[in-house]
Amino acid sequence: MGLMKALIINTDAAVPVPIPVMFNPPEYQLQKTNQYAEIGIPGLGSSLLQFVRGSAQTLTMELFFDTTDLGLDVRAFTGLVLALTDVNSDTHAPPRLLFVWGSLVFPCVLESVSQRFEYFNSLGMPLRARLNVTLKGNDKLEDLLSSIPLLSADRAKRRVVASGDTLQSLAAQEYGDPRQWRAIAEANGIDSPLALTPGQGLIIPTLT
Question: What is the rounded distance in angstroms from the CA atom of residue 46 to the CA atom of residue 37?
């Protein structure tokens, strides 16, 4: 049994109607990146890396459309995908989407799409096209927050203070709760929550 056709669903529509791709892509690429800040410490031969934040996943693929046998303008089909970049008058943003193909269920928005027309009839009407699409992951805030562990790992960590760091921001990063800053302060003998300097080493204790 062949794999079912991939679907693009506009979840912001009053009645979401799946848009089936004409031909399943031969491959797709999922990319996830993290951002790190380089912290320069005087006297060290290299910078230290500190995790800043993760970025949304990106799904890229090429979609193929061919209406040669139908004799129809292929833009009638590619236009359905292109329209997903239009700004919604209610939300003032392009629609939120769901890309579904087999076991891949990807909440996203259409970040970019480029069209290349390859074959035309005698009147110049395009009959064949390829669309390169980039879908940006669009997870719900509550899903992102629920994925943050409320406790640190089962052993203490060490961190180097970067410019702009506070005990509250470190507690939010490590524990998912800025109110736990006192645990870091007590472990490092810090009396004032503002007494942090860039390059300072800190122990991040476990929460019990």
Answer: 13
Which residue from 195, 79, 60, 66 is spatially nearest to 133, judged by alpha carbons? 60
Domain at 150-204, CATH class: alpha beta
Contacts 24+ apart (CB under 8 A), 87-94: 88/12, 91/12
Query: How do residues 70-128 score in pLDDT, each as one tens digit?
Result: 999 999 999 999 999 999 888 899 999 999 998 899 999 999 999 999 999 999 999 99
Contact 170, 160 (CB under 8 A): no
The highest-confidence range among 52-56, 84-88, 138-142, by mean pLDDT, is 84-88
Whether residue 193 contacts residue 168, with contact meaning beta carbons closer than 8 Å, is answered with: yes
CA gap 27, 10 in Å, rounded: 22
* Residue pair 36/50 in contact by the 8 Å Cβ criterion: yes
Q: Please state the domain extents for the chain.
A: 7-144, 150-204
Is residue 177 within 8 A of residue 169, CB to CB? The reply is: no
pLDDT digits (tens, 9 = 90+) for 182-206: 889 888 888 877 778 888 888 888 8
Q: Which of 173, 169, 184 is nearest to 150 (CA)?
A: 173
Token duo for residue 49: 């890396």
Strand partners, 100: 7, 105
CATH 1.10.510.10 fits 7-144, yes or no: no
